[in-house]
Write a structure and sequence with these properties.
The complex is a heterodimer of chains A (about 170) and B (about 425). Chain A is α+β, with helices and mostly antiparallel strands. Chain A is built from four helices and six strands; from the N terminus they run αββαααββββ. Chain A is elongated. In chain B, strand 3, helix 17 (about 320-335) and strand 4 (about 340-345) form a beta-alpha-beta unit. Classes of the chains: A alpha+beta (about 170), B mainly alpha (about 425).
Chain lengths: ~170, ~425
């Protein structure tokens, strides 16, 4: 009887917490992990939207060729870097609502390259390429990367020193 | 009200097979150990991330408390120790050695490592349910069957009582064997429900436009270099059907729990769905597929009983403690119920019936095994016949076929049989 009461309490508690985590629907909070909700892929999208790939590139101090800096090379989680770059580009909905996020994300991106670049880079650039898709799928398979921003690395991420590239 | 309570009790606590619970333990622990255990290298790499990126989630803070201050960041040495603990305890939980503490250590180690991975601003969804399932198994009687613990308990009982009793089907049933499986089943229902509801609430009807799934297919394909996603995105009708099918599956998964007849269809559908998502988008939800093991007991049982081969009969000396322990071990290894046992000291008539011409001195000298074709094997050859017949002993059977091994085996058997102790015989047949 006692064993059954214990089991019922554990099962009830586990399912209640999991049920409680379902609301509000779409919140996507990891705070109570391993109890969590599952709102992946729930945002709707429509034709005409753009898919953007962003990439940081380091400009070597010795005048060598630009070096692509994927999240691995910056020793930072991929999703973290992608989200940082979206904010730094001012492209995320969150950044649009909070202009200060754009500035602090740029500082963070610069700082990340400054710390992990081991002094090899004097500038860091944010590049992006835009994909378009329609009813029949992807329209452009290999669009060109475009330079969005170019920031110096000499001072730790001073936003005043950043300039938008043309 | 009483009927509802009774139905709930049946749903959660109707006697269920301990062996099935053990299969769930073995499957989930093996899957976690082999495929899902956080990589040590990645864990160490995380400790090199910028301090400012470290935002510990509460699960990590709680699990770190015994060894560090609240919110402290794990050191590489600690992570290495936890990883090692997870591997060792996982192997122990797999074979069922000190199963409960092993499962607790395995669940704690894996939860800590995964929580650490999620404390740097990046998190994923596949691992959560697996962690909860491991904790639930640790609180259940998952080590009572198909485990070293079971063997030890049965050998202890044999040693204490000086009797051998083959396991009966009713020994396998326990009212505490069902609730952990049910809990994981309902956790899967809630996870899928969350995914389905999010698409309806956040996305609304716009979610069912092919554009939504096309967008995700293309985005993930580009991110993870999975060209099939881009190809699939070029077929809007297929994409629209996949969108409707996915949401229907997610919202109705409870049917898989409530209507056992349709469970296999949901499991196959779910396995295809997750495999398809992985192939097209590189989003690995294989933990969910592993967790499906909590559903599939009845079918396994039916398949096994249909294929049950004919039995072998073992004639043993019930007055010899070593023989009793050997029979206990054989019965443990005989998962398919292939062996029948005859204690010739208690049941001489039956013994002579299955081994014609058997004499009491010959019976006391060596174990006898009668195979389904009527052939009688004795001593080392009897064990060899058993090893060939029982799936769990087949590797040993192959080894015993080697001439040097069989020669040594016969000598060792004769020596042990001659020196084994016998208890005072008190049964009728002892006078034979």
């Amino acid at each position: 009887m006692l064993r059954r009461a214990f089991a019922a309490t554990v099962a009830g508690a586990v399912l209640t917490i999991q049920l409680w985590r379902l609301f509000p629907v779409g919140a996507d909070s990891m705070w109570y992990w391993p109890f969590m909700d599952y709102p992946m892929y729930s945002e709707p999208h429509r034709y005409g939207e753009e898919l953007v790939e962003r990439e940081l590139r380091g400009v070597p101090c010795d005048g060598g060729r630009l070096v692509a800096l994927p999240p691995d090379s910056l020793r930072a989680p991929a999703f973290f870097v992608w989200s940082l770059l979206a904010n730094a580009a001012g492209a995320s909905a969150y950044a649009a609502q909070h202009p200060a996020v754009v500035d602090s994300s740029r500082r963070a991106a610069v700082e990340l390259v400054r710390r992990r670049g081991d002094g090899r880079y004097c500038r860091v650039q944010l590049w992006a390429r835009h994909y378009r898709f329609g009813r029949s799928g992807l329209r452009s398979r290999r669009p060109q990367y475009v330079l969005l921003h170019d920031w110096p690395l000499t001072e730790p991420g001073a936003p005043s020193a950043t300039r938008a590239a043309r | 009200m009483r009927r509802v309570t009774a139905a709930l009790r049946r749903h959660w606590f109707a006697p269920a097979s301990l062996r099935d619970l053990a299969i769930v333990r073995i499957t989930l622990v093996a899957a976690q150990l082999l495929f899902f255990l956080p990589a040590l290298q990645q864990q160490i790499a995380l400790t090199r991330h910028d301090e400012r990126l470290y935002v510990p989630i509460p699960a990590l803070k709680v699990l770190m408390l015994p060894v560090a201050a609240w919110g402290a960041r794990p050191t590489p040495d600690l992570l290495q120790a936890v990883w090692l603990l997870a591997v060792v305890s996982g192997v122990m939980a797999l074979i069922g050695l000190y199963t409960r503490p092993s499962l607790l250590a395995f669940a704690a180690g894996n939860t800590l490592l995964t929580a650490h991975e999620y404390s740097y601003g990046e998190s994923h969804h596949p691992e959560g349910l697996m962690m909860i399932a491991l904790w639930l198994l640790a609180l259940s009687p998952a080590g009572r069957a198909s485990s070293v613990d079971e063997l030890r308990a049965r050998l202890d009982a044999t040693r204490r009582t000086l009797t051998f009793r083959p396991a009966r089907p009713e020994d396998d049933l326990d009212e505490m064997a069902r609730w952990p499986l049910r809990t994981v089943q309902w956790l899967l229902v809630l996870a899928y429900l969350s995914a389905g509801l999010s698409k309806l609430v956040v996305g609304g009807m716009a979610w069912f436009s092919p554009a939504t799934l096309q967008y995700y297919l293309i985005r993930d394909s580009l991110r993870w270099n999975a060209p099939l996603g881009v190809e699939l995105a070029g077929h809007p009708v297929l994409v629209a059907l996949a969108a409707v099918g996915t949401v229907a599956f997610e919202l109705t998964f409870a049917v898989a729990v409530l209507v056992p007849r349709v469970t296999p269809f949901y499991l196959v559908g779910g396995a295809l769905l997750h495999t398809g998502i992985f192939v097209a988008q590189h989003a690995p939800f294989f933990q969910f597929i592993a967790l499906y093991v909590v559903f599939i007991r009845p079918r396994w049982r039916r398949i096994r009983s249909r294929a049950a081969p004919r039995p072998l009969t073992v004639v043993y000396d019930g007055a010899c403690p070593l023989c009793l322990r050997t029979m206990t071990a054989l019965d443990f290894l005989d998962g398919g119920g292939r062996l029948r046992y005859v204690d010739f000291e208690r049941d001489w008539e039956t013994a002579v019936g299955v081994v014609p011409g058997l004499t009491p001195p010959a019976a006391r000298e060596a174990i006898h095994v009668v195979t389904p074709d009527g052939a009688v094997h004795r001593g080392f050859d009897a064990f060899h016949a058993l090893a060939r017949a029982l799936p769990t002993l087949r590797p040993a059977g192959a080894l015993m076929s080697l001439p040097p091994v069989s020669r040594i085996g016969r000598a060792v058997y004769a020596r042990v049989a001659a020196r084994r102790a016998r208890v005072a015989c008190t049964t009728e047949s002892c006078r034979i």
